[in-house]
Amino acid sequence: MSNLLSRRALLTTMASGAALAAANGDAAAQQAPGGMPAGGAQTLEADVCVVGGGSGGVGAALAAARMGADVVLVEKNQMLGGTSTCAWVHTWEPSRGCRGIPQDVWKVMKEDPAASLAEDYEASLQRVGGVWLPWEPWGFQWAVTRLLEETGKCRVLYNATFFDVEMDGGRIESVLCTFAGGLVKVRAPIVIDCTADGNVCVAAGCDYRIGEDPKSAFDEPNAPDEPTLSLNSLTLLYRITDTGEKQTPFAPAEAPKCPRSAALRTCGNGDILVNAVNMIPGNAVLHADLSRILALGVRLVYDHFRWMQTEDTRRDFSTWTIAGVAPEIGVRETRRIVGEYTLTEHDCQAGVKNQQHEDIIAITDHAVDIHGPKHKLYEVPNGAYGVPYRCLLAKGTENLLIACRGASFSHIAASSCRLSRAMMTLGQAAGTAAAVCARDKTPLRAIDVPALRQALTGQGVELA
Domains in the chain, ordered, with CATH? Predict the structure, then answer.
């Protein structure tokens, strides 16, 4: 039975479990549906602990659970999907390598006609001439929840904040998080860091990189000789709707000027999702907390939309109004954990046919796309390239994988492979590997790589 644990559910589960069971006709729910009483320090045992329920975490948890592993998924927000759902980056760009779990999620979402009007998933699987796939965050949450429930093997802790690990040498013994006003300790033989920022890896003592890499590090063609601490820009997305009536443009007097650019994507109901590219310098995350950045972002949204209403010549937005602002800032880059191998621009340019790696567990062909003052954009020249399994192995640890934008990538390579469906596929590979190693009591670095690749292709993952 799947236990989807929210803060409220945990606090009320002992009192209302029987009533819920009767209402839902679920006899199994009578057996302590939350699995824990409220209050005090609690310990959960699992085969795999996934920290972070963004795209990578969804892929990891679902893959491991489908393999039969008992999974605990720790998520700080009240819904899964991370940047895609909470920062409203809910449009998938066309790219290869997006079968497997991303396509499974899409199939469930499409059962609800309102979740997305896009019909042709296959057309999204080619970079050149491919279609974009817009969808609604609530559709994603429903689809992923159902898929996880179907496994009967995954417990989701919503509103759970990771804060530390307990170590024994290079091995994580326990993952610590706050949940429902108390401490929860998750003990699992394999841990997967899907926090985007590599928070679990940092707590475990792993080294990381941040900002540009010098040319001397990997001899990348576009790396600078003298690197700077330059992170990809931040964006607070917002949504607009057409009222059919003339609107009065407005922006607060204190609103600063927002950069005059925007990527627009039409939602299924006709609303437009506005991505004001390069809205906030990426280095802001180094100097201010996200609460202050979010407050700044809201003011910038007002200024940006006033510009669209009064000066944007692409179309007439005079009858449009702001329908909503994303609850979370879209962060493109922070830490990148040092793994057993670092994916570089050489990999992006080589293409999978020219790479010499025997442990490729995902492919993508998204453009190299650096946002901000060091802007660079170009399509990868030799088609899809592969991401090796070693990029997921956090150096200096025994039982820790990382499957998110904070995995072992160079600054340049990360700008290409950080997108949602690629991260979900990396998560699928990590979850599959974790389940196998937990089941067979095999060290992560001793896994049978050909067998792992075979398992992934059997799940629909493209590797060539």
Answer: 39-231+335-464 (3.50.50.60), 238-325 (no CATH)
